[in-house]
Model the fold of this input.
Amino acid sequence: MIDLTSHILGKTDEHIEVDLRDDLKQLILSMTQQAKHRILIFTHDLDHNLFDTDELYDAIKTLAIENQRTHVHILVQDAKPMTKKGHRLLNLARRITSHMQIKITAREHKDIIETFIVFDDRAYIIQNHPERYEAEGNFYAPLKTRQLSEQFEELWNRGVIDSSLRRLSL
Done:
């Protein structure tokens, strides 16, 4: 298991490469737990193995509760696995709509295969292929995160809110 105890979000400038699911989960969790303001996630289907965990749910919930200016934006290409199986982050997004939103990518962006996550415009993770757990990241790379944030914002602005992602009121 990867040891990230000495890595500080916004300070530790070290390129990290992982190729095991548990290491990638730990990298995502570590950065999420240290985030203070904003998390941007672009992903194929919000992989249950990586994103549907109690620890990640708790970290994002804590982030949203502790800071009223926090926002988590998740952009998925395929929401079906999330809505069919259920997903902790989907349930959380339905409960804290002022801090967390999920959208579906526009049709013209369905061919982008990588997953990328930006934390506080300081740290990033890029997973190059959704079926493999090979990824790279850095706890402090402002230039790279600015590029990813700009790409995300462009994709986000063209994304759509799918009715299957909204809270159902009875």
Remarks:
- Helices lie at 21-34, 48-51, 54-66, 80-85, 88-95, 142-158.
- The mean pLDDT is 92.
- The domain at 16-115+125-162 is CATH 3.30.870.10 (Endonuclease; Chain A).
- The chain has one domain: 16-115+125-162.
